[in-house]
Amino acid sequence: MEMLTDSLLTEEEARSFLPLLFKEIPVSIAVSEKTSDTDSVILAVNDEYCKLTGFSRSELIGKDTSVLRDMIRPEDLGRIQAMLASGQSLTNMEIVWKQKDGTEKWALSSTRLLFLSQRTLLVNIALDIGLQKQAERNLAVKYEELQATYEELVAMEETLHQQHDELKEADARLALSEERFRLATEMSEIGLLDSDLLQPGQPFWLSGNWLYKLGLDHLPLPIEREMYVQRIHPQEQPERANRFAALLGGHSSLFEMEYRIRDREDNWLWVLVRGNIIRDDRGKPIRLIGTMTDISELKNREMQRYYQATHDELTGLLNRRGFMEAIAMRFTDRQPVTGAFLVVDIDGFRFINDVHGQEVGDEFLQAFARHLKDSFPQDTVLARFGADEYLAFFPELMDAAAAINLFQPLAVVLLQTSAGSFAARSSGGFFLCGGQEGTPESYLQKAVLAMHHAKIVEKSACYIYEPLMQAVAVRRHAIREGLSQALQNQEFFLQYQPIYAIEAITERVIGFEALLRWRSPSLGMVSPAEFIPVAEETNLILPIGEWVMQEACQFFSGLDAQKGSAATVSVNVSVRQLLSPGFSNRVRSILQQCDLPPGQLGIEVTESIMMTDEQHNIAVLNELRAMGVSISLDDFGTGYSSFTYLQKLPIDVLKVDKSLIDEIAQPDRNALLLMESLVQMSRLLGYRIVAEGIENSDQLVLLRQIGCGACQGYLLGKPMSAEAVREQYPSIGS
Ligand code: C2E
Ligand code: MG
Ligand code: MG
Questions:
Q1: pLDDT tens-place string over residues 680-690
Q2: Which numbered ligand comes closest to the C-alpha of 577?
Q3: CB neighbourhood size of 153 (10 A)
Q4: Which domains can be identified in the chain, with CATH numbers?
Q5: pTM, to two decimals
Q6: Nearest CA to ligand 1 atom 27
Q7: Fewest Cβ atoms closer than 10 Å to its Cβ: which of 59, 111, 128, 417?
Q8: Best of 519, 527, 532, 636 for a ligand 1 pocket test (most atoms within 8 Å of beta carbon)
Q9: Do 124 and 48 contact (CB within 8 A), yes or no?
Q10: Which residue's CA is the closest to the ligand 1 atom numbered 29?
Q11: What tens digit of pLDDT does each residue of 543-563 get?
C-alpha cells in the first residue's frame, strides 16, 4: 500500500479501502500473475474491466491472458509482450480493445509488474478513452474537412486570383476600348445619344463633345429633349418631327436625317443623325439610341459643288441646269406650269468679245446680268444660258402686253465696262405657259424659237411665241441647209439695178448695184432679205460675198458700155466681211485680177458697222477709199440712224432708204423737208446722195426739186440680168 503511505490511514484502513476503490473507481483494473515469458493468468478484474473487454468476470478470472490476445491489435500485443519479457512496466499506452461484439474501444493502458514473494503480478489499469478518441477522431475529421475546405479555399482563392487577374485584364481592355471609343467619337466628331422615351419630356443623354458643341454643357444630364430640338433649323423642323413620329409609330425602323443645328456660337452645323428605336415585348418604343455626326464640311462642299453645278460662274445667275431644277421644284405633275418663259439674246455680242477682248466681254455680260436683275420683279427665276443668252421665268405672268412691257427696258441699254460704255441691244422671245402640254424644256424651246424669230424679223425686239414660228424656223433651217451647198452648185447669180443721175431732165445711168439672187432647187427663188441674215449667221457670207465681188467686178470690167466712163458697180458688203482679216487686200487683188480700176467699184455698207468695232471698220473703209473705191452708206433713215455716224464715217455716197422716200410725196411734207435737209447737209459735207426705191414720177419730180442728185428704183430700172444690162445699156456714164 505504497500509495497510502503518506496518508493518515492505517494499514488496515487502507486495506479495507482497496476493495472499495477496486470496485467503484471508473477505471478498468485487472490483476494477473505471470506464468511464463509470454503468458499470465488473470486473478482479478473489476466491473469496469469487464465493460472494457466485453467479458464477464467468470469468463476472465483464472483464465490465461491469451483469451485477450485476439482482442488486441498485433502491434499493441507486440509491445505488451516485449514489456513482459523485459520485466519492465508499461505506462500510458494507448491501445485498442476489440470487444467480443466486434466494437472497438480505445483505452489508455498502464501495466505494472509487482514482484511479490514468489509471484510476479501484473496490474493493468486502463482508462476508457473512447470519448476522447472519438473527439480526437471528430477533430481529425473536422480537421480534414477543414483542411479540405482550406484547400478548396486555397483553390478558390487561386481561381479568384486568376479571375481577378482576368477581370483586371478585362478591365484594362475595357478601359482601353472605352478610351479608344471616346477618342474615336471625339476625333470623328460622332456624338452618341440615348433617350428614354418612357419618361415625360423624353430626356436624353448626349456625349460630352456634342453637349459642348451645341452649348448644352451647362445643363445637368439627362437634358430635356426640347432644349435640343429648339436648336434645330426651323426649315428642317417639320420634316424631322414627321420622321420622328413615323419612327415612333413603327412606320420606319431607322431614323436617318440630315439637318442643321445651331452650335454654341450660333452658327449652323449640318449634322447627320441616325437613330434606332428599342421596343418592349409589346412593341412599345422605350428607348432611342443614335449617333450624330458633323457633316458640315461635307455638306458645304456638296452645296458648293451643287452651287457650281447649277450656277453661272461669271454672273452668279443660275445656269441652264439650275434654271430647270428651279422650275421643276416649282411645278409638279399635279400643278401645271403657269407663267412666262423669256429667252434674251444680246445682238452682236460676239463682236464685243472679238474686238475688245474677253475681259471686256465678261464685264459686259456681268453688267447685262445686273441690269436684268434690276429690271425684273423679285420672284423672277433668272439664268444665263449660253454666252450671251439669258433665261427668265416670270411666275403667273400670262398677259402678252405685260410681257412685252417687261422686255422694254432690255431692247437697248447702255452698259458700262472698263473699256467704255456700250449699247447692248437684245432680242427676246416669250412663251406664255398656261398649263399646256409639254415639259419645261419644250416651253423653253418655244421661247427660243420666238427669240430667233425676233432676230430674223426685227432685231432688238421681242416676240411672243406663236405656232407659225415653227414654220418660219423650219424654213430657216432649210435655208441654212440649202445655202451650204449653193455656192458650189452654182445656184447664185447676180442682177444689176441701174442708178441714175437725175439733175438733168434726161436721167443717165451712172452705175449699177449688184444684187445677189439665189435659185434653190428645193426652195425656189429666195429673197436676199431672207437668206443674207442666215448667211451672215453661219459666216457663209464670207465666201458668198467674195464670189459676188468677183462676179460683179468681172461683169463690169467686161461691159464695153462703161469703158472710159466714171460709172461704178456697187457691191453690198456685210459687216462680217469688213471684219474678216485682210478684206481690203482681197478687194485689191480682185480688182487687179479683173483689171477694173478701183474708182469703178463702190461698196455699200450699213450703219451696223458702227455697232461692232467701229474703229476697225472705219480703218478698213479708209484703206478701200485710199485705193479709190467709193463707199456708200446704205439704208440711211432706218433703224438707229444717227447723224453722228455721218460725221465719223469715211463715205462718198449716202443712200436714203426707201422707207423715207415712200413718205416724201405725202401731203404733210415732213419727210420731204427731212430729205431736203439731208440733201443740203450732204452737199456741205461733200458726199453724193442717192434716193432708193423710187416707184413713181411724183417722187422723182420732188427729188429733183430739192436737188437730190441721184436715185434708184423700179420707176427707172428694175434689177436685171447681166445680159439685159449689156443689151439695154449700150452706153453709160458721162
Ligand atoms: P439694198 O442694198 O438696200 O438693195 C436694194 C433693195 O431694194 C433690193 O432688194 C432691190 O431690189 C430693192 N429695190 C430697188 N428699187 C426698188 C423699188 O422701187 N421698189 C421696191 N419695192 N424695191 C426696190 P433686194 O435685191 O431684195 O435686196 C435686199 C437687200 O439684200 C439689199 O438691200 C441688200 O441689203 C441685201 N443684198 C442684196 N445683195 C447682196 C449682196 O450681194 N451682199 C450683201 N451683203 N447683201 C446683199
Ligand atoms: Mg444696197
Ligand atoms: Mg438700200
A1: 999 998 999 99
A2: 1
A3: 12
A4: 2-128 (3.30.450.20), 189-300 (3.30.450.20), 311-465 (3.30.70.270), 490-728 (3.20.20.450)
A5: 0.57
A6: 528
A7: 59
A8: 532
A9: no
A10: 529
A11: 999 999 999 999 999 987 777
